[in-house]
Amino acid sequence: MREEIYSFFWGLRNFVQHVKTPNIIANVKHTSKKNGVVYSTYFNRDEILSGYNSWQNKAKFFIKNQSELIDIKGIVLKYFKLMNDFYEWLVDKLVDYHRDDFKKVEEKRKEYNKEFFKHVPDLLKSKLLLHYEINNEPEHLFVNIVPHKIYYEVLSKFDNTSDRLIEFLKYIEQHITLEDDLKSEIGKAFENYITSKKV
Fold it and tell me: Same domain for 78 and 128?
């Protein structure tokens, strides 16, 4: 079944690209369920078999063993499950194969972070000076200091500027303790920005 359905979808892709999109039959069925309507779509088995001359033998075998109306959603879900199972298997194998490599990368990342965060206080001081010159959003102070993924997660999760500041500082202080004077200066930058927005 697995090889046949792979062959069918490979042939279907070529059919659509080089010949035409097969006719799709739609069916609407009224039910007593909440939505009240069930929509189904089908290919006509004989039409797609005769409408394309380059089906591989395994694809032909698959098509011939379907009912006259081939449930599109049903075969797509089967194909999706096969592909999903394959990629889960592949990822597991790759993770297992590269386990030692991942450990080495993680060790290097920790070494990099240890060295990088030594310079973060000076980076923040420089960014503060620039912030006062151009008066941009104070969140920009943390660009290229907080990893992009975490930076944008904080922006999307928190609408309040003060909450964002707390989250950014919380992340940084997992790696290095900032002086109170520096945190106070950063806090003022955020407060001034909030105040300016209220005016």
Answer: no
